[in-house]
Amino acid sequence: MKREKSEALFEKAKKYFPGGVNSPVRAFRSVGGTPLFIQKGKGSHIWDADGNEFIDYCGSWGPLILGHANDKVVDAIKKTVENGSSFGAPTALENDLAELILNNNKYIQKIRFVSSGTEAVMSAIRLARGYTKRDKILKFEGCYHGHSDSLLVKAGSGLVTFGNTSSAGVPESFVNETIVVSLNNEAAVKQAFAEFKDQIACVIIEPIPANNGLLLQRKEYLQFLRDICTENKTLLIFDEVINGFRIGFEGAAGYYNIQPDIITYGKIIGGGLPVGMYGASAEIMSNISPEGNVYQAGTLSGNPVAMAAGIAQLTECLKPNFYQELERKTQFLIKEIRSHLPSSIIPFNIFSVGSIFWIAFTNKEVVRSAEEIDADSMKYFRVLHKELLERGIYLGPSGYEVGFVCEAHTEEDLIKTAKAFGEALEIAMK
Question: What's the mean pLDDT when you consider all of the chain?
């Protein structure tokens, strides 16, 4: 595979950006080699600066559920931007996208658009604190909620613990308001509520954790969280920035039929443009300024171009059997990969939900917590990733990240991908 242009671009980028990138995982540190500089994408394929072509299962980390440069999304963007790219004032497009979402999602009544998933979660946390008049939040090891200070926290060594900062620049006072427990551990959650009675504003969880492996949770566990939050007058936040509109139009709330108090979204609702959103009941959302006293603002919130792209994309997602067909493709891919597995293979599994899948070098039938992931197994993914690139298959450059199947993936794409997996795994196991 040619990499000369990507290598030259990376050397130049290192003069301008820390580590040569504008988001850490892009640096290819965990898989080695030079990051690919992508030049264009269409459908299920992308091309890098050197002209190499790949079948893409990253999809910009999930937003491109229709594939790259979908004609309807591109047309909506072009039509809208011709009238202006931003106004810092309301537009009808905000109403149109909100109506489209709320008319098809019974778990929220009012929403607020923002510009990223991180901003959506940060705002949801502030809303929960303002609504409950409590300060502490409870999160789970293995769930990622963006890079705001209160949530850049990893677990300490105890069953229930205040976390340790996982980034420099996060004051200890912020961390002390964040309680961290292990996923899938009801005893730990009960202990936290006992120790910090009437102090916990919210429990925040990725109901389908998909940023540190695909840690599928039991419905009973999520229902337990709903019940204990209700008992303690604590708000339950579902962070659905990744899985929202990916496994169904109503996301994990609809998939599990569990009503959270606040839901955060992002990714898919922008059609590939920067966007985020949080929503709740009308009563809870009435606490947001200018109606209430919880302040949140944004110059580019509800950006008309992003709204138009979102309308075009979500309209497609509402087509009959859209999600069933995505899941069918994903299961077909997994079945094909399994049929190409080498006869003597190290522990290997593929976990999936809807059109999300995760490659894991493990013999476990299910992985529900971060502690169950063998860090040493990432050495196999490193080789797998390199060999897949050589065969024209692009996955996100980290073994902890998930992959995504999009509407544009063809059966030919999936069969070619499975064959490449078989060849790459042969080498990864040596």
Answer: 94
> Residue 63: which residues within 8 A CB-CB, separation 6 or more?
266, 267, 268, 270, 271, 272
Residue 399 has what DSSP assignment?
A: T
pLDDT digits (tens, 9 = 90+) for 164-213: 566 788 778 877 899 989 999 999 999 999 999 999 999 999 999 998 89
**Alpha carbon distance 271, 299 (integer Å):** 19
Cis, bond preceding 304 (omega within 30 deg of 0): no
Q: Is 323 a catalytic residue?
A: no
Q: How far is CA 49 from CA 46, 53, 69, in A?
A: 10, 10, 17
Is residue 60 left, alpha or beta, with left meaning phi > 0 and alpha meaning psi from -120 to 50?
left
Residue carrying structure tokens 């202006």: 84
Of 38-52, 102-116, 137-151, minimum mean pLDDT range: 137-151
Residues facing residue 279 across a β-bridge:
111, 263
239 noted as active-site residue: yes
The span from the CA of 185 to the CA of 122, in Å, is 25
Domains and CATH numbers, the chain: 4-69+320-428 (3.90.1150.10), 71-317 (3.40.640.10)
Residue 292 contacts by C-beta under 8 Å, 6 or more apart in sequence? 130, 286
DSSP at 218: P
Token pair for 51: 């002209």
Q: With bands split at pLDDT 50, 70 and 90, how would you rate the model's confidence at 342?
A: confident
Catalytic residue among 239, 256, 323, 394: 239
- Return the closest-CA partner of residue 117 out of 284, 237, 253: 237
Instruction: Indicate yes or no: pTM above 0.90.
Output: yes
Closest CA to 342 of 424, 245, 225, 258: 424
Round to whole Å and give the CA distance between 124 and 128.
6
261 is catalytic: no
Cα–Cα distance between 36 and 28 in angstroms, integer?
Answer: 9
Catalytic entry in 57, 144, 255, 323:
144
- 91-143 per-position pLDDT tens digit: 999 999 999 999 999 999 999 999 999 999 999 999 999 999 999 999 998 88
Choosing from 56, 136, 265, 267, the catalytic residue is 267
